[in-house]
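EI: anyone free to look at a 288-residue chain?
SC: sure, send it
EI:
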Amino acid sequence: MIVRFGYYPTRWGKRRRFRCKMCRRTFCRNRGTVYHRLQHRRATFDEVAALSVEGVNKSAIARVQQIAWNTVDRWLEKAAASCRRFNDQRITKIIIRELQADEIRTLAGSREHPPVWILAAIEVWSRLWPATVVGKRSYRNTLTLFRDLGARTTGNHLPLIDTDGFKFYRQVVRRLFGVACLYGQVIRRRRKDRVVKVQRKVRIGAAWRWNEAWRNSEDSRQLNTSYIERLNLTIRQGSAYLHRRSLSHARRTQRLGDHLELLRCHYNFLRHHRALRFGREVKTPAMQ
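SC: here you go
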């Protein structure tokens, strides 16, 4: 029901036009994509998005690409909305063998506002970043994170879960997974911003089940949160909003959440992970 219907001119040449036989309306190939009605080259749009997920702030991108700051802001907003839809469609029916969760503290708006927390989780075996929540460090947001994770899994496996000592993790895990899962906490005692003591506590699960889980695990030999800590570093490096001692902090929580969706899509589907190297082939977390 769709036929070719000539061409239309652009600043960089002509492009194909199509027409629907039913409604008789014409449209271009970019209809319904982030490139629709784009007044610049598509390669420029891709470069702006690539620079953003590499930790370059909007002002620097505007100077490098020689385009207006408002244009960069609008493009990144469109890219984030598209990536949010793509993540919701593609990150489904995954198998979670070992899960780690942690939080990142940051700033949104002025320093008079309360801090904003980024709750993230990682599937250790594939290094997949399946879900994230931006907001307060509360029971509700913790429950939202794990419910999102539960909705994206097949439900056939009960995972091994490692977190830090945040009090609401234990309540949420017990509520959603019950006593059938394996759950432990890594509690770090700090003094003058230095870790002086590390405690590993088993909260749910018998000792023989933990020993069996360590034998079957390809990555971990004891309770740890090293993989989610490494993901936290990747998130900080990939988002200019989260750089330490930076003037580029997010002015609104919504913008921070949008950029994290863009970064999550790039991390899962486009960025090859060094830990997933098999001979000459290097996979992304989504491929794994």
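EI: The mean pLDDT is 91.
SC: 👍
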